[in-house]
Amino acid sequence: MCQSGEGKPEAGLHVSSVMDTQCPFCSVQCKMTVSAGTETLAGIIRTVYKAEGKANAASQGRLCIKGMNAHQHATHAERLVQPLIRKEGKLVPVKWEEALDTIASSFSTLLSTQGPDAIGIYGGGSLSNETAYLLGKFARVAVGTRYIDYNGRFCMSAAASAGSKVFGVDRGLTCRLADIPLARCIVLAGTNIAECQPTLMPYFHQAKENGAFVIVIDPRVTPTAAAADLHLQIKPGMDAVLANAMLKVIMDEGFANEEFIRKRTNGYDQLLTHLKGVDLNESAALCGIEVEMIRQAAHAFGSVETGIVFTARGVEQQTDGHMAVRAFLNLVLATGKIGREGCGYGAITGQGNGQGGREHGQKADQLPGYRSIEDEEDRAYVASVWGVKPSSLPGKGVSAYEMMELVHQREIQALFVMGSNPVVSNPNVRLVEEALKKLNLLVVADMFLTETARMADVVLPVTSYLENTGTMTNLEGRVLLREAARSAPGEARDDWNILCQVAAKLNKGSYFSYRDAEHIFEELRLASRGGPADYYGITYDRLRREEGVYWPCPSTDRAGMDTMFRETFAHSDQKAVFTVVESCGAGEEISEEYPLILTNGRVLAHYLTGAQTRRSPSLAAREIENYVEIHPRTARRWHIRDGEWVEIASQRGSFTVRSRIKPHIREDTLFVPMHWGGIQNVNRATRPDLDPFCRMPGFKTAAVRIRPLHLAVAATSADNGEWSEF
């Protein structure tokens, strides 16, 4: 799974170049070396690549199977190398000038006839900090629209908003990765690190060797859960109920850190009153977990001096994700386990730049440095950096899925998508597909002809991680510099460069005259200065010397803050806030028609919508198609055989996958990976219901039915007055 050590050429391989770079996938952002050379096989000369881990503070030289094979998508024959425009129903290659003119013409027409809010900008959590920053500026200065958001809305919004409310600021990890082995108890709620961030697992193995008690909360026996000391196999959607039950035990049995609570928090008395009404037996029944197991978990976390709580999408991708995370943060505050070694809270970021991507302005309500677009002082400061009037900046827009609803309603008539594949990643995909077909203009900037790009009117080829210089911020808030290791193929261009060229066509080029990525970063530093996510003290030269700097870092001659909240929190009174969280579930109600709960997640070999990993032969061979995990007793009940094709349907729609009968999932739950589009796309059935605080969709808890595909086809044919043998 993981590999370390310096790269050495294979025997018989003639190495022509060695490229130092950084993995494009998960939030660890492992450093790597890619060796490119040639070998002769049966008289045929071919190019061969080999990737190995390179020592750095986060991954310590490890590299997982995705990183080892990332070069395969970057060098794939399907890479887009020319702009494409739809003519007579087909996408055909054109010159850059024509592509840019087409975008500018359509945008200009909408700006003059419908206004700037007829144009939407849709970004991605894998874009570099420089591009994410520039995308936000492009939306607000070049276009003037308030409608900008990004796919990170589906990743980190619940944890980010919860951290901001409780602590006063959000950073993925409040502590260092190096603190994990120092913790005496670790709670992993809704996260499968062994498959999603595998190069981090040695930290947890080391913690266990040091005597740590590891608790995993997950409806499946994942590889992460298999390594735990205690696995709480929770019913999906009941995370807040479980956190409240654990907290009640901690409070009732004297594990609370009264001194910390008194000196450094607010809201404790209200929470204590609320917890008196929590019934452990009722909570256990709702969660599908025995009371004694909840007590064991609470004792394990409450009784030790150090501990860390981690959450991820299993907790956060719920319609109560924001409050569920706050319930887990109550556990951290009640025991005083934050602001010191071996303690803290961590949101396990999913995307490569999920942390930095939400800090600098591509989120609907944010300006660079984690400033608020609704705060007059923040608007004035950023406007001064950009050289525009504060009044010219638009207000807050809407979330990513809500943008799709506005497209469907024709309020947004042109959409510019950069580094994302919304046709696969959004919930309620049928609506999204219908919406995109209604657009006057759909522009997609990507490396491949993704499911979304196939629907576009203009497709722009962008550089890959091997060719694009920029900074990324990993899950612990460490800013890293990834420098281009080779030239771009064909006519592919850096994403930030494309934004500058479109801006110039819209007569806003004077605001976007950058020489290179470093030039953009210098402006980003200034725009973030004094904000919650202060990057001012970070420079490219410093990143090259130090190989990563934590934010906040307000000064070039001081280290960044590796451990947050040692003495104070970021609220004006310097205290953290307890939250009263109701003990009720967030799942969609099951019924006779839809009797099962559908949840979803990642697998080791793939990443996000699979646009990159499914084009890696080595990774695709590990998982060539999507599947559903179903418990043996559930499979017998619904007459499903192992390996047969099944249809899974909800009120929103249906999809088709192959079955895998596994005893390690709850009987009331189905699990389907999220990496496939088309008829295998799990999001054809997921819920569009949104968390009221952070607008996160309820991906993890859709009520569904399942049946063998041949029966589904027969039923459909019968409904149509036909009979079909399958």
Automatic annotation (TrEMBL):
Keywords: 4Fe-4S, Iron, Iron-sulfur, Metal-binding. SMART domains: Molybdop_Fe4S4 (SM00926). Residues 16-78 form the 4Fe-4S Mo/W bis-MGD-type domain. It holds the Pfam family Molybdopterin. Its cofactor is Mo-bis(molybdopterin guanine dinucleotide). InterPro entries: Asp_de-COase-like_dom_sf, MoPterin_dinucl-bd_dom, Mopterin_OxRdtase, Mopterin_OxRdtase_4Fe-4S_dom, Mopterin_OxRdtase_prok_CS, Prok_molybdopt-oxidoreductase. SUPFAM superfamilies: ADC-like, Formate dehydrogenase/DMSO reductase, domains 1-3. This is Assimilatory nitrate reductase catalytic subunit. The keyword 4Fe-4S applies.
